[in-house]
């Protein structure tokens, strides 16, 4: 295991017609952290270890990232509804790019109860009436994704996070990429984040993360 140090992320509201006049950044609701590990680091997924062993002539790093979503507070209104994390892998000259050969998770799910359907019976004036009712949570469970990854074998992987029934978008959500490096170059990763929060008074509002260039330009090798 590795310990990832989390950093506060400031969320800037996107200005929309009819949105609230208060355009103050949202603070204290989202933190982000990362670590760059050897490809053979303890705890690496078995599929990744096999991939690295099968390509001994290539150089890899494991990029581990953690997004931590915090619940609503009196000074930070709104519940997280959806968020996205994008990574842009690059070298200084741009002629060759590092590639996220494998990503984790491809999809992370939680069991969610279906709506269900039942029958109700009522006797009215000697006549049997049959009705339909849907007891909450009475249906079969199904898996709903809460984290979904895109961009395997691409230089710009991304992950989506969302809330589903009975599972708010809160707490720590780790994601990772096995990055194939460009040999002999400075390899970096730039992080972009966005989020949607739902407010009781004025609905859904979109935010973008203010990520200072220096702490969030992650050096993978070089």
Automatic annotation (TrEMBL):
Name of the protein this chain belongs to: Uncharacterized protein
Species of provenance = Streptomyces paradoxus
């Amino acid at each position: 295991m590795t310990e990832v140090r989390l950093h506060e992320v400031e969320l800037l509201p996107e200005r929309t017609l009819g949105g609230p006049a208060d355009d103050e950044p949202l603070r204290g609701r989202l933190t982000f952290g990362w670590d760059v590990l050897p490809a053979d680091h303890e705890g690496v997924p078995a599929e990744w270890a096999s991939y690295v062993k099968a390509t001994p002539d290539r150089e890899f790093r494991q990029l581990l990232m953690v997004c931590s979503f915090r619940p609503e507070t009196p000074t930070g209104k709104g519940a997280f509804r959806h968020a996205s994390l994008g990574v842009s892998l690059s070298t200084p000259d741009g002629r060759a790019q590092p590639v996220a050969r494998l990503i984790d998770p491809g999809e992370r799910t939680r069991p969610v109860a279906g709506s269900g359907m039942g029958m109700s019976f009522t006797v009215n004036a000697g006549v049997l009436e049959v009705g339909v009712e849907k007891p909450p949570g009475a249906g079969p469970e199904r898996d709903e994704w809460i984290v979904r990854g895109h961009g395997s074998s691409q230089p710009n992987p991304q992950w989506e996070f969302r809330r589903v029934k009975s599972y708010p978008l809160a707490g720590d959500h780790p994601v990772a990429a096995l990055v194939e490096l460009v040999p002999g170059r400075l390899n970096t990763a730039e992080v972009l984040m966005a989020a949607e929060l739902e407010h009781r008074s004025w609905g859904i509002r979109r935010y973008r993360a203010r990520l200072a260039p220096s702490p969030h330009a992650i050096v993978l090798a070089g």
